[in-house]
Amino acid sequence: SLSTISFIAQSIVNSLLPTEQCNVFIEGYNSIGSDAFRAKENVVSVTIGYSVITIGTWSFYRCLALTSIDIPDSVTYIDVCAFRNTRLTSINIADSVTYIGPMHSQIVPL
Fold this sequence. Notes:
The protein is built from no helices and ten strands. The protein has strands at residues 3-7, 11-12, 22-26, 31-32, 43-48, 54-55, 68-71, 77-78, 90-93, 99-100.
């Protein structure tokens, strides 16, 4: 079974994760900073809590194991290339998102 890693604070930048594959739960943060999970190839899924308002540039770039993410109603802004070079097969984006940066959806084939 995969471990679940929880992040609770103000802003995530350059996160530290275990080396095995894991699910990530983010709560208590206002934003997921630029490059926060960049090239974290062991992240399989991400659940974002209702405290998060923005997802920064390249936040999940090259998360090659990332296949699903849920974006709640609290998020209004997804910056440039936030999910570029992932393997997303499931992404739920709330209607509250008013801006999605260019090239956010370049997905690496399985």
